[in-house]
Design a protein that fits this description.
transmembrane; single chain; transmembrane transporter activity; 18 helices; globular; transmembrane helix; mainly alpha; Pur-cyt_permease; transport
């Protein structure tokens, strides 16, 4: 007679099989609220996706870009550390909303900007995430081609096409299959990439020349601020618009401090290490710094022994895919949140097509990556910073969980298109764009229109490239929301709970007062 009692081994095997099966199923949750029965995990589970998304060797390349602002190693280190930690801390605070509301970031944003007013933020978020996933896929494609060329296998169009197809397929699959596959994939990427990155550092550490690094002259306060803002937009402000997408599956009783802490720690840990190492590496050799600025991944292979090129390709491509997968997942959620009547997997597939087309443009288009990249980050970063200020203030003022039904009901407590927060968002963007410039992209020449008005020397003055507009947009929106919206938030939370509703993603997400 067979003993029906499961052994520890059989129980563990069953759990592993169930988890694998879940990861290989297409997630059908979209912009709906996650039901209590489907909420799972602990705050420390957030470490894996955030670490994997930010452990890319691209972090080393940021060291060269920061030094391009004309500042010393000490200034660059301070700007990098402060910019990374502060901006990812903002992500941690926004992640609190996911735990409280169990819905995607852009749905929770409706409490601050109105149910249909938040579509503006959703569109901005979609542009930012699609842009990032395109950049990361392009870099992964070029990294494969560079390594193949160094190994003598050829780095021509055929290699690039094969790399594009494989990398694109992996990213799009992650976006379509969704949360469970992403969480498993990111755990694997974290372990593999961390080990191989340590190997890379060990092999090239002798390239560091501390005398050359210490001899780099200090730059101006304006250059330091410009580097600080660049780090904020390149890291935390590039993720803040999706920070609640991964905490929304956690149970409501989960520690808020744990959610914010593990999000910040997981996201910031790898960049802090990689940036400092990148600063040391780029500061040791001007030729290498210039090469990295132009070819952020390929230049890093020039100082490697041939036998480590394949492991380097694995670490480079894995890290870039890790970031792109999170982006395409959140871009799909953002696209559905704009009101487009499609399901989340379909939205992710649409974004995948756009990502591939954008990658083709970058890989085979004009050779001006850094200019396009910086212009994109700063231009989209300004309104995202304004939105972040509004969202952070709204999260700080709330003492109760979100009302689930009214997040989808445009006549509910959160309003449809409330004038005050929309005006704050618009004003923050106008102020911000007026205080930033980008000399690498002629199509952004209209920016900086306030620099002369406020006495900062105009578009050619010392403050032209400090990119103060990002900080101004963030601070203005945060303070203005605290000052002008506190009464509205108290009124919203004093109202009785609305009738519960079940919202199918992509199908009539905005309900009338009766929930019909």
């Amino acid at each position: 007679m067979t003993d029906p009692t499961p052994t520890p081994t059989s129980t563990a095997a069953s759990a592993t099989t169930a988890a694998t099966a879940s990861a290989l199923q297409v997630e059908m949750h979209g912009i709906d609220v996650i039901a209590d029965a489907d909420r799972k995990g602990r705050p420390r589970d957030l470490f894996w996706p955030w670490f994997a998304a930010n452990v890319s060797v691209l972090g080393i390349s940021y060291g060269a870009w920061v030094l391009d602002f004309g500042i010393s190693f000490a200034q660059a280190t301070i700007a990098s550390v402060v910019g990374i930690v502060f901006s990812f801390l903002l992500c941690g605070f926004v992640a609190l909303a996911g735990k409280r509301g169990s819905a995607p970031t852009m749905v929770l944003s409706r409490a601050a900007l109105g149910v249909r007013g938040s579509r503006v933020a959703s569109a901005l978020s979609w542009i930012l995430t699609v842009g990032w996933e395109t950049v990361l896929m392009a870099l992964a494609t070029l990294a494969v081609a560079t390594v193949a060329g160094s190994l003598g296998w050829g780095d021509g169009d055929a290699t690039k096409v094969i790399a594009l197809v494989v990398v694109g397929a992996l990213i799009i699959a992650g976006g379509i299959f969704g949360f469970d596959l992403i969480m498993r994939l990111q755990t694997i990427i974290t372990i593999v990439t961390a080990v191989l990155t340590i190997g890379y550092v060990a092999l090239v550490v002798d390239e560091i020349d501390l005398d050359a690094v210490s001899a780099i002259p200090a730059g101006s306060a304006q250059a330091f601020i410009g580097a600080l803002v660049f780090m904020m937009t390149g890291f935390g402000l590039g993720w803040v618009n999706m920070a609640a997408d991964y905490s929304r599956y956690l149970p409501r009783h989960t520690s808020g401090r744990g959610v914010a802490g593990w999000t910040t720690f997981g996201a910031a840990l790898a960049p802090l290490f990689l940036i400092v190492f990148g600063l040391l590496l780029a500061g040791s050799d001007d030729d290498l710094r210039v090469a990295i600025s132009g070819d952020p991944i390929g230049a890093l292979t020039e100082i490697l022994p041939t036998w480590y090129l394949i492991p380097f390709a694995i670490v480079a491509v894995s890290g870039l895919i890790g970031g792109a997968v999170l982006d395409i997942y959140s871009s799909g959620l953002a696209l559905v949140s704009t009101g487009l009547p499609v399901k989340r997997p379909v939205a992710a597939a649409i974004d995948g097509v756009i990502m591939v087309l954008g990658t083709i443009y970058i890989v085979w288009g004009p050779d001006s990556f850094f200019g396009i990249f910086q212009g994109f980050l700063i231009t989209v970063g300004v309104p995202i910073a304004a939105w972040a200020g509004i969202m952070l203030a709204d999260v700080a003022m709330r003492r109760r969980d979100y009302d689930e039904g009214d997040l989808y009901r445009h006549h509910g407590r959160y309003g449809d298109v409330p004038a005050v927060p929309m005006a704050i968002l618009a004003t923050g963007a106008v102020l911000g764009w007026g205080l930033v410039t980008n000399g690498y992209a002629e199509w952004l020449g209209w920016q900086g229109y306030l620099l002369d008005v406020v006495g900062l020397g105009g578009r050619e003055g010392d403050w032209a490239y400090a990119n103060l507009g990002v900080l101004v947009a963030l601070a203005f929106a945060f303070v203005a929301t605290l000052a002008l919206r506190a009464g509205a938030v108290r009124h919203q939370e004093a109202l009785p709970a609305s009738p519960e509703v079940v919202v199918a993603e992509g199908a009539r997400p905005l309900l009338d007062e009766g929930g019909q």
